[in-house]
Amino acid sequence: MCNLGPVPKLHRAKRGQAPNCTSAQTANTWYNRRMRPSRNEKENAMREKLIAELYENQFNKFVGFEVLELSPTYSKAKVKCSEKIQNPYGSIHGGALLALVDTMAGATGCMNGYYVTTVSANLNFLLPAVNTEYIYCECMKLKTGKHILVFDIRITDDEGNLLDSGEFSFFASKTPLLDNTMRY
């Protein structure tokens, strides 16, 4: 296990509200202007394709998260704390948190050029997600092996308090992300 030291308070730059995007392409353009620039054209093409796929997926639309950052080594997203993803006790349902993390860590893994699938998922629920407008998910790559990618996960609230932490592993398939012949 990697020792990451004490958990720092996360400071976020103030971000404007996302426009009411009518299509994944419009959302792509808006978020790409808000993110750090890509290192090259291939990375930018992968980012655009992944963001379009994320925003077109019906389950992701239901959860309602916004991608704030997406690169081969780091991703960040936020989700509004709403009643539709709360458990009966008024906090965000653990399944919704796990889905958010799995989606974002998987998207980060795909930024290496190949589609990935989850091998293992470990999320430690430290504090309930209550009394916050948004929750933030950060995925940081710990290791890239020949086939396995490992990510450190942090979920925080509006104040930067650590709510959940974990580690996810993914298997990199042989299907290139930018290849249009998706096979199952």
SSE blueprint:
Elements: H1 24-34, H2 41-56, H3 58-63, E1 65-70, E2 74-80, H4 94-110, E3 114-125, E4 134-144, E5 148-156, E6 162-176
Antiparallel strand pairs: 1-2, 2-4, 3-6, 4-5, 5-6
Helix pairs in contact: 1-2
Describe the structure.
The protein has 184 residues and is an alpha+beta fold. The chain has a single domain, classed as Hotdog Thioesterase (Thiol Ester Dehydrase, Chain A). It contains 4 helices and 6 strands. A 6-stranded antiparallel sheet has the order 1-2-4-5-6-3. The model is unreliable at 1-33 (pLDDT under 50).
Largest sheet: 6 strands, antiparallel
The DSSP helix count reads 4
By CATH's scheme, which homologous superfamily applies? Answer: Hotdog Thioesterase
Helical proportion, percent range: 25-40%
Q: Which of globular, elongated, flat, extended, rod-shaped describes the shape?
A: globular
Q: State the distance separating the first and last CA atoms.
A: 33 Å
Concise account of the structure shown:
With 184 residues, the chain is of the alpha+beta class.
Tag the structure with descriptive keywords.
4 helices, 6-stranded antiparallel beta sheet, 6 strands, alpha+beta, 184 residues
